[in-house]
Amino acid sequence: MTDLQAEYAAHAASLQQRFEHTLAASGWQSALVYSGSLTPIFRDDQTQPFRAHAWFKAWAPLTGVPDCLIHVQPGAKPLLLFHQPTDFWYEPAPLPDGPWTRHFDLLAVPDLTAARSALPRSLARTAFIGEPPAEAESWGLGAINPPELLLPLDYGRAVKTPYELTMLRAASRTAASGHRAAAAAFQAGATEYEIHLAFLAACGLREQELPYNAIVALNEAGAVLHYQNLRRHRPALHHSLLIDAGTQFNGYASDVTRTWSFRDPDFRDLIDAVDAAQQQLCAQVRPGADWRDIHLASHRAIAQVAHEAGIIRCSPDQAVECGVSSVFLPHGIGHLLGLQVHDVAGLQKTPEGGDIPRPAGHPYLRLTRVLEPGFVVTMEPGLYFIEPLLAQARGDARAALINWPRVEALRRFGGIRIEDNLAVTATGSENLTREAFAAVA
Ligand code: GLY
Ligand code: MN
Ligand code: MN
After folding, report:
1. Among 137, 321, 335, 368, which is least packed by CB within 10 angstroms?
2. Per-residue DSSP letters for 173-213?
Protein backbone atom coordinates (compact mmCIF):
# COMPACT_ATOMS: atom_id res chain seq x y z
CA MET A 1 0.00 0.00 0.00
CA THR A 2 1.33 3.46 -0.86
CA ASP A 3 1.29 6.23 1.73
CA LEU A 4 -1.66 7.83 -0.02
CA GLN A 5 -3.64 4.59 -0.04
CA ALA A 6 -2.94 4.14 3.66
CA GLU A 7 -3.93 7.75 4.32
CA TYR A 8 -7.19 7.37 2.42
CA ALA A 9 -7.95 4.09 4.26
CA ALA A 10 -7.46 5.84 7.61
CA HIS A 11 -9.54 8.80 6.42
CA ALA A 12 -12.42 6.54 5.37
CA ALA A 13 -12.23 4.71 8.69
CA SER A 14 -12.33 8.02 10.54
CA LEU A 15 -15.36 9.19 8.53
CA GLN A 16 -17.13 5.89 9.15
CA GLN A 17 -16.44 6.14 12.85
CA ARG A 18 -17.63 9.79 13.02
CA PHE A 19 -20.80 8.95 11.10
CA GLU A 20 -21.52 5.87 13.23
CA HIS A 21 -21.03 7.84 16.44
CA THR A 22 -23.18 10.75 15.26
CA LEU A 23 -25.92 8.52 13.87
CA ALA A 24 -26.14 6.66 17.17
CA ALA A 25 -26.15 9.88 19.20
CA SER A 26 -28.83 11.50 17.04
CA GLY A 27 -31.04 8.42 16.74
CA TRP A 28 -30.78 7.95 12.97
CA GLN A 29 -30.03 4.55 11.50
CA SER A 30 -28.18 5.58 8.33
CA ALA A 31 -27.18 8.56 6.24
CA LEU A 32 -27.62 9.11 2.52
CA VAL A 33 -24.99 11.53 1.22
CA TYR A 34 -25.80 13.17 -2.12
CA SER A 35 -23.35 14.63 -4.65
CA GLY A 36 -25.87 17.24 -5.87
CA SER A 37 -28.05 17.92 -8.90
CA LEU A 38 -27.46 19.78 -12.11
CA THR A 39 -29.36 23.08 -11.75
CA PRO A 40 -31.22 24.10 -14.90
CA ILE A 41 -31.31 27.73 -16.01
CA PHE A 42 -34.80 29.24 -16.31
CA ARG A 43 -36.50 28.25 -19.60
CA ASP A 44 -33.23 27.03 -21.05
CA ASP A 45 -31.68 23.65 -21.78
CA GLN A 46 -28.41 24.73 -20.14
CA THR A 47 -27.42 24.12 -16.54
CA GLN A 48 -25.28 25.94 -13.99
CA PRO A 49 -21.71 24.67 -13.63
CA PHE A 50 -21.84 21.67 -11.32
CA ARG A 51 -20.27 21.75 -7.87
CA ALA A 52 -20.37 18.59 -5.81
CA HIS A 53 -21.64 18.88 -2.23
CA ALA A 54 -18.89 19.02 0.37
CA TRP A 55 -20.00 15.99 2.39
CA PHE A 56 -19.99 13.85 -0.72
CA LYS A 57 -16.45 15.01 -1.55
CA ALA A 58 -15.39 14.17 2.00
CA TRP A 59 -16.11 10.52 1.20
CA ALA A 60 -15.21 10.28 -2.48
CA PRO A 61 -12.65 12.27 -4.49
CA LEU A 62 -15.28 12.87 -7.20
CA THR A 63 -16.02 16.51 -7.98
CA GLY A 64 -17.80 16.35 -11.33
CA VAL A 65 -20.57 13.72 -11.16
CA PRO A 66 -24.11 14.78 -10.18
CA ASP A 67 -26.78 12.44 -8.81
CA CYS A 68 -24.45 10.05 -7.00
CA LEU A 69 -25.37 8.80 -3.53
CA ILE A 70 -23.41 7.23 -0.70
CA HIS A 71 -25.37 5.17 1.81
CA VAL A 72 -23.54 5.11 5.15
CA GLN A 73 -24.65 2.46 7.63
CA PRO A 74 -23.12 1.29 10.91
CA GLY A 75 -21.00 -1.84 10.58
CA ALA A 76 -21.12 -2.00 6.77
CA LYS A 77 -19.05 -0.77 3.86
CA PRO A 78 -20.58 2.42 2.45
CA LEU A 79 -22.54 1.86 -0.76
CA LEU A 80 -21.67 4.25 -3.60
CA LEU A 81 -24.46 4.50 -6.15
CA PHE A 82 -22.60 5.96 -9.09
CA HIS A 83 -24.69 7.85 -11.63
CA GLN A 84 -23.94 6.53 -15.09
CA PRO A 85 -26.74 7.45 -17.50
CA THR A 86 -27.13 6.03 -20.96
CA ASP A 87 -26.50 9.21 -22.89
CA PHE A 88 -25.14 10.23 -26.25
CA TRP A 89 -25.41 14.02 -25.75
CA TYR A 90 -22.96 14.03 -22.88
CA GLU A 91 -20.19 11.62 -21.99
CA PRO A 92 -21.13 9.58 -18.93
CA ALA A 93 -18.40 9.55 -16.29
CA PRO A 94 -16.45 6.28 -16.25
CA LEU A 95 -16.91 4.05 -13.24
CA PRO A 96 -14.19 5.13 -10.83
CA ASP A 97 -11.44 2.65 -10.17
CA GLY A 98 -8.94 4.09 -7.73
CA PRO A 99 -7.33 2.76 -4.59
CA TRP A 100 -10.15 4.48 -2.70
CA THR A 101 -12.97 2.56 -4.42
CA ARG A 102 -12.15 -0.64 -2.58
CA HIS A 103 -13.54 1.02 0.53
CA PHE A 104 -16.99 1.10 -1.08
CA ASP A 105 -19.53 -1.26 -2.48
CA LEU A 106 -19.82 0.35 -5.87
CA LEU A 107 -22.86 0.13 -8.11
CA ALA A 108 -23.48 2.02 -11.34
CA VAL A 109 -27.07 3.26 -11.69
CA PRO A 110 -28.57 4.89 -14.79
CA ASP A 111 -30.86 7.25 -12.88
CA LEU A 112 -32.23 8.16 -9.46
CA THR A 113 -35.11 5.69 -9.76
CA ALA A 114 -32.59 2.88 -10.08
CA ALA A 115 -30.61 4.36 -7.20
CA ARG A 116 -33.72 4.29 -5.00
CA SER A 117 -34.36 0.66 -5.93
CA ALA A 118 -30.87 -0.29 -4.76
CA LEU A 119 -31.54 1.14 -1.29
CA PRO A 120 -33.47 -0.53 1.58
CA ARG A 121 -37.25 -0.61 1.14
CA SER A 122 -37.80 1.71 4.09
CA LEU A 123 -35.76 4.87 4.50
CA ALA A 124 -37.88 6.08 7.43
CA ARG A 125 -34.82 6.11 9.71
CA THR A 126 -32.43 7.42 7.08
CA ALA A 127 -31.24 11.03 7.07
CA PHE A 128 -30.48 12.62 3.71
CA ILE A 129 -27.48 15.00 3.54
CA GLY A 130 -27.49 17.50 0.68
CA GLU A 131 -29.86 19.58 -1.44
CA PRO A 132 -32.39 16.87 -2.34
CA PRO A 133 -33.52 16.32 -5.93
CA ALA A 134 -37.27 16.51 -6.64
CA GLU A 135 -37.37 12.69 -7.08
CA ALA A 136 -36.45 12.19 -3.42
CA GLU A 137 -39.79 13.59 -2.24
CA SER A 138 -41.39 10.16 -2.78
CA TRP A 139 -38.57 8.14 -1.19
CA GLY A 140 -39.99 8.13 2.34
CA LEU A 141 -36.84 9.69 3.81
CA GLY A 142 -36.83 10.14 7.58
CA ALA A 143 -35.35 13.64 7.43
CA ILE A 144 -33.40 15.98 5.23
CA ASN A 145 -30.31 17.55 6.78
CA PRO A 146 -31.43 17.07 10.38
CA PRO A 147 -29.40 19.49 12.49
CA GLU A 148 -28.78 16.93 15.25
CA LEU A 149 -26.79 14.93 12.69
CA LEU A 150 -25.38 17.63 10.45
CA LEU A 151 -24.14 20.10 13.10
CA PRO A 152 -21.84 17.64 14.92
CA LEU A 153 -20.50 16.39 11.58
CA ASP A 154 -19.86 19.94 10.35
CA TYR A 155 -18.16 20.86 13.62
CA GLY A 156 -15.76 17.93 13.31
CA ARG A 157 -14.80 18.84 9.76
CA ALA A 158 -12.54 21.62 11.06
CA VAL A 159 -9.99 18.97 12.10
CA LYS A 160 -8.41 17.48 9.00
CA THR A 161 -7.18 13.91 8.64
CA PRO A 162 -3.65 13.28 7.31
CA TYR A 163 -5.25 12.38 3.94
CA GLU A 164 -7.01 15.75 3.85
CA LEU A 165 -3.76 17.56 4.68
CA THR A 166 -2.11 15.77 1.75
CA MET A 167 -4.93 16.99 -0.53
CA LEU A 168 -4.62 20.54 0.79
CA ARG A 169 -0.84 20.53 0.30
CA ALA A 170 -1.37 19.44 -3.30
CA ALA A 171 -3.93 22.23 -3.84
CA SER A 172 -1.40 24.73 -2.47
CA ARG A 173 1.25 23.53 -4.89
CA THR A 174 -0.95 24.01 -7.97
CA ALA A 175 -1.90 27.45 -6.72
CA ALA A 176 1.76 28.38 -6.25
CA SER A 177 2.53 27.41 -9.88
CA GLY A 178 -0.41 29.49 -11.04
CA HIS A 179 0.64 32.48 -8.97
CA ARG A 180 4.19 32.38 -10.34
CA ALA A 181 2.85 32.42 -13.91
CA ALA A 182 0.38 35.21 -13.06
CA ALA A 183 3.14 37.38 -11.55
CA ALA A 184 5.29 36.89 -14.67
CA ALA A 185 2.37 37.85 -16.93
CA PHE A 186 1.80 40.99 -14.83
CA GLN A 187 5.44 42.00 -15.03
CA ALA A 188 5.18 41.58 -18.82
CA GLY A 189 2.27 44.07 -18.89
CA ALA A 190 -0.65 41.67 -19.35
CA THR A 191 -4.33 42.57 -18.85
CA GLU A 192 -6.40 41.12 -16.00
CA TYR A 193 -7.92 38.64 -18.45
CA GLU A 194 -4.52 37.55 -19.75
CA ILE A 195 -3.18 37.17 -16.21
CA HIS A 196 -6.15 34.96 -15.37
CA LEU A 197 -5.51 32.79 -18.44
CA ALA A 198 -1.84 32.50 -17.43
CA PHE A 199 -2.94 31.34 -13.96
CA LEU A 200 -5.33 28.73 -15.36
CA ALA A 201 -2.84 27.42 -17.90
CA ALA A 202 -0.10 27.01 -15.30
CA CYS A 203 -2.54 25.18 -12.98
CA GLY A 204 -3.93 23.05 -15.81
CA LEU A 205 -7.47 23.90 -14.77
CA ARG A 206 -10.57 25.29 -16.43
CA GLU A 207 -12.34 28.16 -14.77
CA GLN A 208 -15.22 26.12 -13.38
CA GLU A 209 -12.75 23.85 -11.61
CA LEU A 210 -11.54 26.69 -9.37
CA PRO A 211 -12.88 26.65 -5.80
CA TYR A 212 -13.96 30.32 -6.10
CA ASN A 213 -13.89 32.99 -8.78
CA ALA A 214 -10.34 34.24 -9.02
CA ILE A 215 -9.81 37.89 -8.08
CA VAL A 216 -7.37 39.39 -10.57
CA ALA A 217 -7.21 43.10 -9.89
CA LEU A 218 -4.91 45.65 -11.50
CA ASN A 219 -4.37 49.06 -9.88
CA GLU A 220 -7.45 50.60 -8.16
CA ALA A 221 -9.47 47.40 -8.64
CA GLY A 222 -7.42 45.89 -5.80
CA ALA A 223 -9.59 47.95 -3.44
CA VAL A 224 -12.67 45.87 -4.33
CA LEU A 225 -12.46 42.95 -1.92
CA HIS A 226 -14.16 40.34 -4.12
CA TYR A 227 -13.48 42.08 -7.47
CA GLN A 228 -15.22 39.94 -10.08
CA ASN A 229 -14.31 41.50 -13.45
CA LEU A 230 -11.52 40.40 -15.70
CA ARG A 231 -10.94 43.52 -17.76
CA ARG A 232 -9.78 42.84 -21.29
CA HIS A 233 -8.25 46.27 -21.86
CA ARG A 234 -4.71 47.21 -20.96
CA PRO A 235 -4.57 50.06 -18.44
CA ALA A 236 -2.50 53.08 -19.49
CA LEU A 237 -0.06 52.25 -16.69
CA HIS A 238 0.48 49.17 -14.58
CA HIS A 239 0.88 50.03 -10.91
CA SER A 240 -0.06 46.90 -8.96
CA LEU A 241 -1.60 43.45 -9.10
CA LEU A 242 -3.67 41.88 -6.33
CA ILE A 243 -4.42 38.27 -7.23
CA ASP A 244 -6.51 36.07 -4.95
CA ALA A 245 -6.73 32.71 -6.69
CA GLY A 246 -6.84 29.15 -5.45
CA THR A 247 -7.22 25.69 -6.87
CA GLN A 248 -8.81 22.40 -5.87
CA PHE A 249 -7.28 18.98 -5.56
CA ASN A 250 -9.75 16.10 -5.22
CA GLY A 251 -12.26 18.62 -3.90
CA TYR A 252 -9.96 20.32 -1.36
CA ALA A 253 -9.29 24.02 -1.86
CA SER A 254 -6.39 26.40 -1.60
CA ASP A 255 -7.04 30.13 -1.15
CA VAL A 256 -3.98 32.24 -1.87
CA THR A 257 -3.41 35.97 -2.37
CA ARG A 258 -0.31 37.83 -3.47
CA THR A 259 0.18 41.51 -4.25
CA TRP A 260 2.86 42.86 -6.58
CA SER A 261 4.21 46.30 -7.36
CA PHE A 262 4.97 46.92 -11.04
CA ARG A 263 7.89 49.34 -10.63
CA ASP A 264 7.14 51.53 -7.61
CA PRO A 265 9.67 50.93 -4.78
CA ASP A 266 7.56 52.78 -2.18
CA PHE A 267 4.55 50.51 -2.81
CA ARG A 268 6.87 47.50 -2.83
CA ASP A 269 8.08 48.51 0.64
CA LEU A 270 4.47 48.73 1.81
CA ILE A 271 3.79 45.22 0.45
CA ASP A 272 6.90 43.98 2.28
CA ALA A 273 5.66 45.57 5.51
CA VAL A 274 2.27 43.83 5.22
CA ASP A 275 4.08 40.60 4.39
CA ALA A 276 6.23 40.91 7.53
CA ALA A 277 3.11 41.60 9.62
CA GLN A 278 1.45 38.56 8.05
CA GLN A 279 4.40 36.37 9.05
CA GLN A 280 4.20 37.63 12.62
CA LEU A 281 0.51 36.76 12.70
CA CYS A 282 1.25 33.30 11.25
CA ALA A 283 3.62 32.77 14.19
CA GLN A 284 0.63 33.14 16.54
CA VAL A 285 -1.16 30.16 15.01
CA ARG A 286 -1.01 27.26 17.45
CA PRO A 287 -3.39 25.00 19.37
CA GLY A 288 -5.28 26.89 22.06
CA ALA A 289 -5.07 30.26 20.29
CA ASP A 290 -8.41 32.07 20.14
CA TRP A 291 -8.93 33.21 16.54
CA ARG A 292 -10.68 36.34 17.77
CA ASP A 293 -7.45 37.38 19.52
CA ILE A 294 -5.48 36.80 16.31
CA HIS A 295 -8.02 38.89 14.42
CA LEU A 296 -7.69 41.76 16.90
CA ALA A 297 -3.89 41.41 16.80
CA SER A 298 -4.07 41.79 13.01
CA HIS A 299 -5.72 45.19 13.45
CA ARG A 300 -2.91 46.34 15.70
CA ALA A 301 -0.34 44.96 13.25
CA ILE A 302 -1.89 46.66 10.21
CA ALA A 303 -2.35 49.89 12.15
CA GLN A 304 1.37 49.70 12.97
CA VAL A 305 2.21 49.29 9.28
CA ALA A 306 -0.08 52.21 8.39
CA HIS A 307 1.51 54.32 11.11
CA GLU A 308 5.06 53.60 9.96
CA ALA A 309 4.11 54.26 6.33
CA GLY A 310 2.65 57.64 7.26
CA ILE A 311 -0.90 56.67 6.29
CA ILE A 312 -2.37 57.43 9.71
CA ARG A 313 -1.52 60.28 12.06
CA CYS A 314 -2.38 58.50 15.31
CA SER A 315 -0.86 55.66 17.33
CA PRO A 316 -1.73 52.09 16.31
CA ASP A 317 -3.67 51.63 19.57
CA GLN A 318 -5.76 54.72 18.91
CA ALA A 319 -6.37 53.59 15.32
CA VAL A 320 -7.80 50.29 16.58
CA GLU A 321 -9.81 51.98 19.32
CA CYS A 322 -11.39 54.58 16.99
CA GLY A 323 -12.17 52.16 14.15
CA VAL A 324 -9.52 53.66 11.85
CA SER A 325 -7.89 50.26 11.33
CA SER A 326 -11.21 48.95 9.96
CA VAL A 327 -11.14 51.61 7.23
CA PHE A 328 -7.99 49.98 5.87
CA LEU A 329 -8.76 46.36 6.89
CA PRO A 330 -12.52 45.77 6.79
CA HIS A 331 -12.58 41.96 6.45
CA GLY A 332 -11.82 39.07 8.79
CA ILE A 333 -8.23 37.89 9.23
CA GLY A 334 -9.04 34.40 7.98
CA HIS A 335 -11.37 31.44 7.95
CA LEU A 336 -11.49 27.66 8.00
CA LEU A 337 -10.45 26.04 4.72
CA GLY A 338 -11.12 22.57 3.37
CA LEU A 339 -13.80 21.12 1.13
CA GLN A 340 -15.26 24.62 0.87
CA VAL A 341 -13.13 27.72 0.56
CA HIS A 342 -15.01 29.26 3.48
CA ASP A 343 -15.47 26.00 5.31
CA VAL A 344 -18.42 25.26 7.57
CA ALA A 345 -18.76 25.74 11.31
CA GLY A 346 -16.29 28.60 11.76
CA LEU A 347 -18.52 30.24 14.37
CA GLN A 348 -19.99 27.03 15.85
CA LYS A 349 -19.74 26.87 19.63
CA THR A 350 -20.17 23.15 20.29
CA PRO A 351 -20.85 20.04 18.22
CA GLU A 352 -24.54 20.59 18.97
CA GLY A 353 -24.55 24.13 17.56
CA GLY A 354 -24.72 27.67 18.87
CA ASP A 355 -22.52 30.57 17.85
CA ILE A 356 -19.38 32.07 19.33
CA PRO A 357 -20.01 35.80 18.81
CA ARG A 358 -17.66 37.94 16.80
CA PRO A 359 -15.84 40.76 18.60
CA ALA A 360 -17.98 43.93 18.60
CA GLY A 361 -17.31 46.03 15.50
CA HIS A 362 -15.96 43.10 13.44
CA PRO A 363 -19.03 41.83 11.55
CA TYR A 364 -17.22 39.98 8.77
CA LEU A 365 -15.07 37.59 10.80
CA ARG A 366 -15.85 34.02 9.68
CA LEU A 367 -13.97 32.15 12.41
CA THR A 368 -14.29 32.63 16.16
CA ARG A 369 -13.23 29.20 17.43
CA VAL A 370 -10.17 28.23 19.47
CA LEU A 371 -7.62 26.50 17.24
CA GLU A 372 -6.97 22.76 17.53
CA PRO A 373 -4.34 20.55 15.87
CA GLY A 374 -5.60 19.66 12.40
CA PHE A 375 -7.49 22.90 11.76
CA VAL A 376 -6.60 24.52 8.44
CA VAL A 377 -7.05 28.28 8.29
CA THR A 378 -6.17 31.17 6.03
CA MET A 379 -4.11 34.13 7.26
CA GLU A 380 -4.95 37.11 5.11
CA PRO A 381 -4.24 40.57 6.44
CA GLY A 382 -4.77 43.46 4.05
CA LEU A 383 -4.37 47.19 3.74
CA TYR A 384 -6.68 48.82 1.18
CA PHE A 385 -7.71 52.24 -0.06
CA ILE A 386 -11.47 51.66 -0.42
CA GLU A 387 -13.31 54.78 -1.54
CA PRO A 388 -16.69 54.17 0.22
CA LEU A 389 -14.94 53.47 3.55
CA LEU A 390 -12.56 56.42 3.14
CA ALA A 391 -15.59 58.64 2.36
CA GLN A 392 -17.27 57.57 5.62
CA ALA A 393 -14.11 58.26 7.61
CA ARG A 394 -13.73 61.67 5.94
CA GLY A 395 -17.14 62.58 7.31
CA ASP A 396 -16.58 61.70 10.98
CA ALA A 397 -14.10 62.04 13.82
CA ARG A 398 -11.67 59.66 12.17
CA ALA A 399 -10.88 62.26 9.49
CA ALA A 400 -8.27 63.96 11.68
CA LEU A 401 -6.43 60.66 12.24
CA ILE A 402 -5.75 59.91 8.57
CA ASN A 403 -3.02 61.44 6.42
CA TRP A 404 -5.15 62.26 3.39
CA PRO A 405 -2.44 63.39 0.94
CA ARG A 406 -0.59 60.10 1.59
CA VAL A 407 -3.81 58.11 1.05
CA GLU A 408 -4.47 60.03 -2.17
CA ALA A 409 -0.98 59.18 -3.44
CA LEU A 410 -1.52 55.47 -2.75
CA ARG A 411 -5.06 55.19 -4.15
CA ARG A 412 -3.87 54.12 -7.59
CA PHE A 413 -2.44 50.90 -6.11
CA GLY A 414 -5.84 49.74 -4.82
CA GLY A 415 -4.69 47.65 -1.90
CA ILE A 416 -2.60 44.84 -0.52
CA ARG A 417 -3.55 41.38 0.69
CA ILE A 418 -1.17 38.54 1.52
CA GLU A 419 -2.96 35.24 2.12
CA ASP A 420 -1.45 31.89 3.13
CA ASN A 421 -3.04 28.61 4.20
CA LEU A 422 -1.87 27.17 7.52
CA ALA A 423 -2.38 23.78 9.10
CA VAL A 424 -2.35 23.83 12.90
CA THR A 425 0.11 21.24 14.25
CA ALA A 426 0.61 19.91 17.79
CA THR A 427 2.85 22.85 18.68
CA GLY A 428 2.38 25.57 16.05
CA SER A 429 1.57 25.54 12.38
CA GLU A 430 2.69 24.40 8.96
CA ASN A 431 2.47 27.07 6.27
CA LEU A 432 1.18 25.09 3.28
CA THR A 433 1.47 28.08 0.95
CA ARG A 434 5.05 29.16 1.70
CA GLU A 435 6.20 25.54 1.44
CA ALA A 436 4.42 25.25 -1.91
CA PHE A 437 6.01 28.43 -3.29
CA ALA A 438 9.42 27.16 -2.18
CA ALA A 439 8.76 23.78 -3.82
CA VAL A 440 7.80 25.24 -7.21
CA ALA A 441 10.54 27.90 -7.23
N1 GLY B 1 -10.86 34.28 -1.73
C2 GLY B 1 -11.79 34.70 -0.74
C3 GLY B 1 -11.15 34.81 0.56
O4 GLY B 1 -9.96 35.05 0.63
O5 GLY B 1 -11.73 34.58 1.57
MN1 MN C 1 -8.63 34.51 -0.87
MN1 MN D 1 -9.56 33.56 2.21
Report:
1. 137
2. HHHHHHHHHHHHHHHTT--HHHHHHHHHHHHT--GGGSSS-
